[in-house]
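sorry for the late reply, my laptop died twice this morning and i had to redo everyting from scratch. anyway the thing you sent over, i finally got around to it. pasting the sequence first so we're on the same page, its 516 residues, then the predicted structure underneath. double check i copied it right bc i was rushing
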Amino acid sequence: MQQSESPRRLLYEVVHVLFKWKVLIVATFVTTFVGIVGGTYLVTPKWKATTKLLVQQNPRLQPVIFENLVQPGQLNPRVRPSANLVEILTGRKMAVAVNKAFRLDERLRKKATDPEETRDQIKDWMGKITSDYPKAVLIKLGLAEEEERDFEAAAIKEFLDEWVDISAAEDSDVISIGVWGESPELATEISLFMSERVAAETLELTAANISTTYDFARAQMPAVVEKLRAAEDGLGDFRREHSITVLEDEMRIKMSRLDKVEADLAQVEVDKKENIERIRELKGRLDEQESKIIEAGFIAGNSLIVNMKTSIVGLEADLSSILAEKKESHPDVIRLRNRIASSKEGLRNEIKSIVASETETMSPIYEDLVEKLISAEIDEFLYTVRHASLGETKEKIEGALLELSDKKMEIARLSRRVQILEGLYTDFETQLEELQLLEQAAISEVAIRVIDPGYVPPKAEPRWPRLDVAAAVGLIFSLIFALILPFVLEFWSDSPRASEIEDLLEKPIIGEVFRV
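ok and here's the structure:
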């Protein structure tokens, strides 16, 4: 019997509590519903306008002056341009620009000092009761200091916290610029303004990078021109100072002359050896006394002989020098050879006369051998002189080649510096022209296109608050709260319950008499 009566007892308890607190339930329901609907009314209505942008990467416009030394930075595939633009759109700089363009701080100031709409007046009155008046009392008591409100900072903070809703679509290059405005027109205008402003910001960043590079190149241009001019002057001065026209041709000529001198020197050595053999043979065929007379006459200290030998030495030296510079057919070479031949013939005749004076009679058989021996001895002297002259000429040409080699290295160094500076000058000049074109073209690193402009019809209902939604939510919440509150109060109440009295007295309760 007790188990069958337990559900009835529970139902009785629930109905008992509801009837006991029926006035509180009705009051709580009405108060909560009115509070929710009234609070919703006090919320400033806002309309949302959303502009969608398509962001695509332009070809890389990173200025590079030295293409052979520096490579343009590679794009990070994990960082999309749209993510960078989201940061620009949600930055303080953008909020400051919006506040300046639409005077959001003045709107906030007007609401605080001279509210026009009823909801604003109610909120102002509530703010004065809950905040302004208590603060004024504290200021009079010296417990607080009066502070002037910064409406600009408050407007910027409110805009960033409550007005904007910026997002980039996942796996896409589309950015949604959502703006909550206090009127359809304001939401639409701010949304479109932000899309235009972000395009201008990216263009300014690109232009600033180009401008910095252009200023650097233009500032370095005079120094490069001065260094190039100095290098060119140094190369020209070196060529003029050393009488160098075409170094390669001059070295080729010197090498050709050296080859000829070495060939002549080798030929002189061969001829000298043959002449020595001839002299040995002729001496063997002559008597010892006549050979000694010829040798004595040849080496005699006769002044005429000495002068003639000295003249021949000088002529041979001149001939070797000229042959190093000119060909055999040159008139100077022909003239010197004729003079050497003439001096040689004069020396031969003088030696013959000396030999003739030293010998009283000579067999006709030996006259021809004596003349040949005299000629061979003269040739031996000429070969010795010519060998020494050609050796000196060879040393001079080799020294000149070494000097030309040093000059070649110096000219190569100076020419290389001129080429480097010419390339540097060309790079700077080309970059200046390209950077000027980029500045005039006004091309950004990212292409931004509006694919869905934000628009809210003038007569559109606000996105929030929605009174119909607030009424429905308020009705449900108020009913739940009104029904739960009595049971909470009953749970925390100290008065004994009917079930507790029955258990205590072990007698059933017939009824309850409420206090009137």
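The CA atoms of residues 138 and 144 lie 5 Å apart.
thats about all i looked at so far, will dig more tmrw
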